[in-house]
Design brief:
By secondary structure, the protein is α+β, with helices and mostly antiparallel strands. It folds into two domains: 62 residues; 134 residues, OB fold (Dihydrolipoamide Acetyltransferase, E2P) (Beta Barrel). The protein is 43% helix and 20% strand. It has six helices and eleven strands. Helix 1 runs antiparallel to helix 2 and helix 4 runs parallel beside helix 5. InterPro entries: SNase_OB-fold_sf (IPR035437), Staphylococal_nuclease_OB-fold (IPR016071).
Length: 208
């Protein structure tokens, strides 16, 4: 039983006791005794406030909870989408930035960042995407689990080597990451910098 329900039951018992007790005449009542009804009224005020608060809080929590978004998606990069003007990063993965260059199995440079973005755009096609929020990055950009026709876009990107599992955020895609590495597909077919590490080094260089 909740605390609110327990308090209300106690006050209800007090009310019943007050109503059931025989009324006393003014002559029988001590001059300085506070009225039972006044005391009961004083006690009921916080109880009713508590009850109202307990009913309001769940409704407010539901209003404040991040809502899922769906609709046509614009691909920003291999791990970022924009839906209805809202920017979302795919939860649990990281992809090369648009300007990032990698080396393939023949040591030839190629634009792995643009390749990842193009692969994600092709996977989505013209279909609607549904994204469920999963927190946010330090820069405020929301993280989300995004699906196209029920398929997890992040899982697809990692499985095909266009992105890697972001182990700092989640262990959800480690299995796909290992399979992509074992098959030497996408990024794993050659040499590449870990995107997060590359960004960190660029920030350090800019600060010098």
């Amino acid at each position: 039983m909740s605390l609110t329900a327990t308090i209300l039951l106690i006050y209800a018992a007090c009310l019943v006791g007050t109503i059931a007790s025989p009324a006393r005449s003014n002559a029988d009542r001590p001059p300085e005794e506070p009225g039972a009804r006044r005391l009961l009224g004083t006690l009921l005020v916080p109880a009713l406030a508590l009850l109202a608060g307990s009913q309001t809080l769940p409704a407010r929590a539901a209003e404040m909870a991040p809502q899922a978004v769906s609709g046509p998606a614009t691909v920003i990069d291999g791990s970022t989408l924009e839906i209805g003007g809202r920017r979302l990063r795919l939860y649990g993965i990281d992809a090369p930035d648009l300007d990032q260059t990698c080396s393939d199995g023949h040591e030839r440079d190629y634009s792995c960042g643009r390749g990842a973005a193009e692969a994600l755009a092709a996977r989505i096609g013209g279909e609607s995407v549904t994204c469920a929020p999963r927190g946010a990055d330090p820069d405020g950009t929301a993280r989300a689990l995004c699906r196209r026709d029920g398929d997890d876009l992040a899982a697809w990107m990692v499985t095909n080597g266009y992105a890697i599992a972001d182990r700092s955020a989640s262990a959800a895609y480690e299995a796909q990451d290992r399979r992509a590495w074992g098959r030497r597909v996408g990024l794993w077919s050659g040499v590449f910098e870990i995107p997060a590490e590359r960004r960190r080094m660029r920030r350090l260089s800019a600060a010098l």
